[in-house]
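User: Could you go from structure to sequence for me? I need the amino acid at each position, not a summary. Structure tokens:
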């Protein structure tokens, strides 16, 4: 029987089993100078000034993508106001040894399916003070990297452990990095299996709460997140997608999938993945796809509509099976971008009204997976 979801953090989340330092993957440390430069951005004050400073810091450090990523991770956005609600900490300190310092990002490798896969891992400030941090896995778009999405997404400002994996080289024009769930996906690469292995390593190695694992992604990465929501519903408490590419391959198995809380953010002016859909590529209209999720989740109320700042329309479905509510944010004339991006994230207009990372965090922190999830029968 499928256990019910809870829409609030547990009062007594499980304490992960402590491992010795030998169980930790050894990080390839990123340049420490970047952290110092980023601290200056943190003190700059206004959000727009922080974004400009992030780009300037990247230029000063010879355009290093790592530099831009860490500069972005230091911005003190409004998402940090949610840290007090990051979820009913047990008060237990992290007892797992690590060479990586709190508030930094480092590169790791994971051997999976005969391949060495890479990911960037960001630890929040004061990581060692608690044993049950939320975990977010963020997937870049086609042609991107884990370092790139860390740089523009602002997710590393959140009170969570955040992993940024990199895709393998895909097929089609340019042989760019891509993910399963699209016609240009890397051949013979199973990113669903890779994600499950990544979750296993992160949950077994770091001080995270297995009941509060979340996934997000942009464009092709968002398409993979959609696929993960349908194929691995027992591993995530909620998911969020920005400018998602909902190719048929990313929708496989969704008709029979368990309910999953989901937030969908998309610009109505997106020229890459049109908001109204694309029949030639079998891309659904985004609003219709959000409504389909609400139907599959058994939502009995909604959509309730409200306007935010004059250019963002929010549609919310509630009273859903297992608390799997659905929220859709449509950005009027918004491009193929990450709203609130700290650096370049795609073509088109970026709204100043919302930050995707803030909206995602507000959504994520309301959802906790059942205690028997994460590998158990549902």
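Assistant: Here is the amino acid at each position, in order:
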């Amino acid at each position: 029987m499928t256990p019910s979801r809870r829409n609030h953090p547990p009062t007594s989340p499980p304490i992960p089993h402590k491992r010795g330092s030998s169980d930790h993957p050894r990080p390839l440390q990123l340049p420490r100078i970047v952290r110092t430069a980023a601290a200056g951005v943190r003190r700059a004050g206004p959000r727009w000034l922080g974004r400009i400073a992030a780009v300037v810091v990247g230029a000063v450090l010879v355009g290093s993508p790592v530099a831009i990523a860490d500069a972005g991770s230091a911005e003190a956005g409004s998402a940090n106001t949610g840290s007090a609600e990051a979820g009913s900490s047990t008060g237990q300190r992290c007892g797992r040894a690590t060479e990586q310092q709190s508030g930094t990002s480092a590169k790791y490798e994971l051997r999976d399916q005969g391949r060495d896969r890479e990911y960037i891992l960001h630890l929040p400030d004061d990581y060692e003070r608690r044993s049950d941090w939320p975990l977010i896995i963020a997937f870049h778009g086609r042609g991107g990297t884990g370092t790139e999405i860390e740089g523009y997404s602002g997710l590393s400002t959140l009170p969570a452990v955040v992993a940024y994996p990199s895709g393998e080289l895909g097929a089609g024009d340019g042989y760019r990095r891509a993910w399963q769930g699209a016609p240009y996906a890397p051949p013979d690469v199973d990113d669903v299996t890779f994600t499950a292995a990544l979750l296993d390593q992160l949950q077994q190695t770091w001080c995270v709460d297995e009941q509060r694992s979340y996934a997000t992604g942009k464009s092709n990465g968002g398409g993979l997140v959609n696929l993960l929501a349908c194929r691995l519903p027992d591993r995530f408490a909620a998911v969020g997608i920005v400018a998602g590419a909902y190719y048929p391959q990313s929708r496989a198995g969704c008709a029979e999938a368990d309910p999953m809380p989901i937030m969908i953010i998309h610009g109505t002016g997106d020229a890459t993945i049109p908001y109204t859909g694309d029949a030639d590529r079998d891309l659904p209209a985004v609003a219709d796809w959000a409504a389909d999720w609400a139907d599959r989740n058994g939502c009995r109320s909604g959509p309730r509509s409200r306007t935010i700042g004059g250019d963002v329309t929010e549609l919310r479905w509630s009273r859903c099976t297992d608390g799997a509510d659905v929220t859709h944010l449509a950005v009027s004339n918004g491009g193929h971008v990450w709203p609130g991006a700290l650096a370049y994230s795609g073509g088109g207009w970026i709204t100043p009204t919302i930050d995707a990372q803030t909206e995602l965090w507000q959504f994520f922190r309301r959802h906790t997976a059942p205690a028997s999830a994460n590998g158990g029968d549902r």
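One structural detail worth keeping in mind: The chain has eight helices and 13 strands.
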